[in-house]
# Entry
Amino acid sequence: MSGEVLVLIIFVFVLSMALGLELISKVPAMLHTPLMSGSNAISGIAIVGALLAAGGTENEILNITLGTVAVVLATINV
# Structure
């Protein structure tokens, strides 16, 4: 991966964090529970996908590592 692509990826990640923080701070308390319910459902789907990635038929170390990290991060969110 070239340096320009890495800088672009980091820029998009930082921009999305700032946008997410701004959007979350504007959500009224009345909508918080339904939004978190939807977020937990999406995280549950992500856990299933991460488990499939971690335990797939190809036992490459990269698949196992990324799948395990994805399971941990999605579980923290739930």
